[in-house]
Amino acid sequence: MKDTKDLEKGGDDVLTCDNVQPILSEYLAGELFEDVRINVESHLSGCRDCADFLETLKTFEETLRMDRVSFESSGLDAKLAEKIAAHVRTQGKKAHWFPHSLFRPAPVAGLVVLAAAVLLLVVLSHKEQPYPGTNVPANQEVIAVDVIPDNLESQVLYEMDDDQVKAILAVLEQEEKKLSSQLVDEFQEYDSGSLFNLGLDFEQGHAG
Amino acid sequence: MRAGVKEGTEYGLVQAASHGDRHAIRVLVERYRKEVMRLCYRYTRDMDEAEDITQQAFIKALNSLESLRSPASFRPWLLRIASNSARNRLKTMAREVPLESSDITGKGSSPQEELMAREKQRELLNAITSLPPKQRDVVELRAILELPFRDVAKTLDISENSAKVNYHLAIKRLGSMLVKARAKKKNQGQGE
Q: Do B105 and A23 touch (CB under 8 A)?
C-alpha cells in the first residue's frame, strides 16, 4: 500500500497534478491507503487534466491486460528445463564474478607457476644488486665499495641523519668483512712451501 | 548442486545453471518461467511463440553470463532478453501474420469488437517498442507484468519515485504518439 506520509504533510494543498498523476496507476490497482485515495478522488473531481490522464491510463492498462491467460502448467517447467539444459554450453567464457573458477586445477597450476616465477625474479634481482646504493653487478669481483664520492663524503655525511650514516657504515663494514675473508681464503690456497719459497725468493732477491 | 554453492540463492543457482546443472536450471525455470512467458505472450499473443521465446531467452541468458554484471541482476537481464526477442517477433508478426489469425480467445464480445480491441492492442504494443528504454522497461514491468512499483524499481535498480515518474511520462508519451498516429491514419483514409 502507498505510504501516506508525504501526502498527509500538507493536506490537500500537496495534491498537485504533478504528484497525483504518478500515483494514478496505484489508484487504479487499489494500492493506495484509504486517506490518500480520498484525497486523490477529491483532486480528480476538480481537475480535468488528471481525469483525462486517468482515462488514458485505464484504457492502456486494460488494453494491455485483456484476454488474460493462465501460464500454470504442471509439466511445463520440467520439460522446458530439460530443453534448456540440452542447449547450455558448459565450456563457454565465464563471468568475471565467478569465484569458484579459481579453484579449478588449471587456474591453480597457473597461479603456482606464476608465484614461482615472481619468487625467482625477486631472488635474481636481489642477486644482481647486492650492494645497495651502487651499480655494481653481482658477477663482478669487488674488492671494496665506496658508496660516496670522496669530494662529497664529509658534506654528505654531515647532512645525513644517524640512520642513514649507520646504514652506510653497515655496508662498509660488510664489505670489509667480505674482503678480509676473501684475503684469508686466498692466503690459505698457498702451502707453506711456496710461501717459504716466496719468502726465500724475496730474501734472495732482496739479498741479491 | 556444486559443493560450496548455497542452494536456492540467486548467485548459486545462476552459477550452477551456467554449468549445465539440471536441478539449478529447473529451479530457475520454476522461478521465472511464468513471468517471462507472460511478457512474451503479451507481445506475441501466441502460446507456442511465447514458450519458444522463453526457452530461447533462458538459453541465451545462461550462455552469455560473461556479459552479466552480477548474478543478482539475472532476473532483469533475462526479462530484457525475452522482451527484446518478443518485440522483434512482434515486428515480424506484423509483417507476416494477419491480425485475424492471431491466437486470441474471445470474451463474449462480437467479432468486430474483438478485432478492434486487438488492433488497438497491437498499435499500443508497437508504440511501446518506440519508447526510450527506461520508460519501455517500466511499462513492461508495471503494465504488462503488473508488478508493484516497489518491485519495478528493484528489478531495474532505480528508485521507486523514478519508476513512477518514468511510467507517468511513458503513458503521456504513448497517448500523444497514438493521437498522432490516429490523426495520420484518418488523414490517409480521407485522402484515399
A: no
At B21-61, the pLDDT tens digits run 888 888 999 999 999 999 999 888 888 899 999 999 999 98
| Residue B162 near residue B153 (C-beta atoms within 8 A) | yes
pLDDT at B62 over 90: no
What is the C-alpha separation between A34 and B84, in angstroms, rounded? 38
- Residue range A72-112, pLDDT digits in tens: 766 778 888 888 888 887 645 556 665 544 445 555 667 77
Please enumerate in sequence order all residues whose Cβ is within 8 A of that of A54, keeping only pairs 6 or more positions apart, or say none: A24, A27, A28, A44
Upper half-sphere CA count for residue B27 (Cβ side, 13 Å): 17
Residue A98 touches chain B, beta carbons under 8 Å:
yes
Q: Per-residue DSSP letters for B39-79?
A: HHHHHH--HHHHHHHHHHHHHHHHHTGGG-S-GGGHHHHHH
Candidate from A56, A78, A100 with C-beta closest to B175: A56
Decide if A136 contacts A147 (C-beta within 8 A): no
**Side chain identity, residue B127:** A
d(CA A143, CA B28): 74
Q: To which residue does cell 568475471 refer?
A: A96
Rounded to a whole number of angstroms, the distance between the first and last alpha carbons of chain B is 65
Domains of chain A, residue spans? 5-65, 140-208
Q: Which three cell numbers stand for residue B20?
A: 549445465
Question: What single-letter amino acid sits at B8?
Answer: G
DSSP H helical ranges for chain B: 10-18, 22-44, 47-63, 74-96, 111-129, 133-139, 149-156, 160-191
Q: Note whether B62 contacts A84, CB cutoff 8 Å.
A: yes
Show the cell assigned to B4.
560450496
Q: Which domains does chain B have, with CATH numbers?
A: 1-105 (1.10.1740.10), 130-192 (1.10.10.10)
Q: Is the Cβ pair A60, B171 closer than 8 Å?
A: yes
Three cell numbers, residue B135: 520508460
Amino acid letter, residue A146 = D
Contact between chains at B59 and A97 (C-beta distance less than 8 A): no
Measure A88 CA to nearest chain B CA, in Å: 6
ipTM: 0.75
Per-residue cell: B149: 512499483
d(CA B161, CA B165): 6
